[in-house]
């Protein structure tokens, strides 16, 4: 996509990240999420929550906490259901 001069949007990155998570390919999901941020594509609160959810399910609590803190710092946490996270983190 990028090699053809097309710029993916947040939805594209979110679907790819979600797909990698569904296949339990969390390393690829992390790379995709990082790529989204590096390409100035701001994740929304649904994207953050889904990624955090899958990271927790995969046992990667350190990264989940880091992403959660990032979402708060970037102001995307306003609709995150953070009440679920203390039970998991």
Main attributes of the structure:
89 residues; mainly alpha; Serine Threonine Protein Phosphatase 5, Tetratricopeptide repeat; globular
Number of strands: 0
The name of the CATH topology is Serine Threonine Protein Phosphatase 5, Tetratricopeptide repeat
Sheet having the most strands: none
Q: How many DSSP helices?
A: 5
Describe the structure.
The chain has helices at 10-22, 26-38, 45-57, 61-73, 85-88. The protein is mainly α and 89 residues long. The chain has a single domain, classed as Serine Threonine Protein Phosphatase 5, Tetratricopeptide repeat. Helix 1 packs antiparallel against helix 2 (26-38), helix 1 runs parallel beside helix 3 and helix 3 (45-57) packs antiparallel against helix 4 (61-73). It is globular, with a radius of gyration of 13 Å. The model has no long low-confidence stretch (mean pLDDT 79).
Compact summary:
The protein contains 5 helices and no strands. With 89 residues, it is mainly α.
What layout of secondary structure does this protein have?
Blueprint: H1 10-22, H2 26-38, H3 45-57, H4 61-73, H5 85-88
Helix pairs in contact: 1-2, 1-3, 3-4
């Amino acid at each position: 996509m990028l090699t053809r001069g097309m710029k993916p949007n947040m939805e594209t990155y979110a679907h790819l990240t979600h797909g990698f998570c569904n296949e339990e390919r969390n390393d690829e999901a992390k790379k995709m999420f990082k790529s989204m941020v590096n390409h100035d594509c701001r994740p929304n609160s649904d994207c953050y929550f889904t990624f955090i959810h899958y990271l927790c399910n995969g046992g990667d609590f350190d990264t989940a906490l880091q992403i959660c803190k990032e979402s708060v710092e970037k102001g995307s946490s306003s609709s995150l259901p953070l009440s679920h996270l203390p039970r998991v983190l």
